[in-house]
Design brief:
Layout lengths: L2 H8 L16 H15 L3 E8 L2 E9 L14 E2 L3 H15 L22 E2 L3 E2 L14 H5 L31 H14 L4 H10 L22 E2 L5 E2 L14 E2 L1 H13 L5 H8 L3 E2 L23 E2 L4 E5 L2 E10 L2 E8 L4 E7 L8 H9 L6 H4 L12
Helix pairs in contact: 1-2, 2-9
Length: 389
């Protein structure tokens, strides 16, 4: 399909929201930027939401959702990927506010049995593998939410597929979905809280996120996004039957924009808990996020001001403090970037991983220079500039 045709398709699905505020590009300009990002990267689908003063100002979607050419719309169900972790962290902070969770209380204290005694549970993790290493007793929710639990990203990435510690809990940042699943297990098994049900009750339903779930719903099939991989091949949307805090969320740009606005203004949390969420908790000492267990850099070679928040990454840039979180798989690219001043965010969701190359330029064109260290988040990424038509 030619570039002109893609531009036409891209303009089919445009959503509405509150008027944009001074200092932000207008909706037509955002549409132009998004369309150019698709042209420059070859991405087939892209959605962009803008939040200012904690309110959704613009939600737009462009391109197609599948190989048939059905349009991607603001209400198309897309894969949330690791943005799930931020939603889960928000839920955890609600439990902190209610006194049900202590960030520095060992997770082991929430469980009626020693963790290894639960065995290897396909829905959660290989807890039996930790028998003989007592460090599981010391992992806290803060360690999990700052990615400092000591595990690799997932056990299946280990040479023998066995879960193990690589460092003392709390010692350093190393991204881990495995640890996130441990905290979910503690909520489900120890606190007897159903994660999916609690997220629906506490966050999704009150915010009107009617097409968001950590578990597949048959109703999603009517307006569902497949994805495109780096080689241009199509990958069907995975119908995830298990609730996984590490990344099983299905959602829409319309829904997730509502959550992004909520987190920007601190909805549903005490002022202290909302501040803790995006406050620097643990200095990040690696030059890049992946591979997970990348070696620590010398102090002079680290990204200044970069630190783990709770379920997000905190940074300091030209506009002051902010936070960001990405979501990625072979056919998905998502990013949320927020600036504390004016509670301003950009949320981008793409059902084509090739779009990630344009994320830095697209965020910069909407928010201005933020200081997000994209070379840390996307090591090896060749950034694509947005050329003017």
């Amino acid at each position: 399909m030619g570039k002109a045709r893609w531009v036409a398709v891209a303009m089919i699905a445009i959503g509405a929201a509150l008027p944009l505020q001074a200092g932000l590009p207008d909706r037509a300009r955002i549409a132009d930027l998004a369309t150019r990002a698709m042209v420059e990267t070859g991405a087939k689908g892209l959605a962009v939401a803008v939040i200012d003063e904690g309110q959704v100002r613009s939600v737009q979607a462009f391109g197609v959702r599948n190989a048939k050419g059905d349009p991607l719309t603001p209400t198309t169900v897309m894969y949330g990927a690791s943005l799930t972790k931020t939603v889960f962290a928000y839920y955890a902070m609600m439990l902190v506010d209610e006194g049900k969770l202590g960030l520095d209380r060992p997770i082991a204290a929430l469980l009626p049995k020693p963790l290894p005694d639960y065995g290897n549970l396909s829905a959660y993790g290989n807890w039996a593998d930790l028998r003989g290493d007592e460090r599981w007793r010391r992992i806290t929710p803060r360690h999990v939410l700052t990615h400092s639990g000591g595990f690799a990203n997932f056990a299946f990435l280990e040479p023998d597929s066995k879960l193990r510690f690589h460092f003392e809990p709390g010692a350093r940042y190393a991204y881990s979905g495995e640890a996130m699943m441990l905290l979910q297990f503690a909520f489900d098994e120890g606190l007897k809280l159903d994660t999916e049900g609690e997220l629906q009750r506490r966050i999704f339903d009150p915010l009107g996120m009617s097409s968001t779930s950590l578990k597949w719903r048959p109703a999603f099939a009517a307006n569902l996004a497949d994805g495109w991989k780096a080689d241009g091949s199509v990958e069907a949307h995975d119908e995830r039957g298990r609730v996984r805090a590490a990344g099983s969320m299905d959602t829409t740009i319309d829904d997730l924009a509502k959550f992004s606005a909520a987190i920007a203004r601190g909805w549903g949390l005490s002022k202290k808990s909302r501040a803790s969420l995006s406050r620097p908790q643990l200095t990040i000492t690696t030059r890049q996020q992946f591979p997970t267990l990348a070696p620590e850099a010398a102090p002079g070679e680290r990204w200044p001001g970069l630190a783990a928040g709770l379920g997000v990454v905190a940074f300091t840039g030209p506009q002051g403090r902010g936070f960001f979180k990405g979501g990625h798989n072979d056919s998905t690219g998502n990013t949320l970037v927020c600036i504390a001043a004016r509670r301003r965010c950009v949320l981008i969701m793409a059902n084509d991983v090739r779009a990630e190359a344009a994320f830095p330029a697209l965020v910069r064109a909407i928010l201005g220079e933020t200081g997000v260290p994209y070379k840390w988040e996307y090591p090896g990424l060749v950034e694509v500039p947005l050329k003017r038509n």
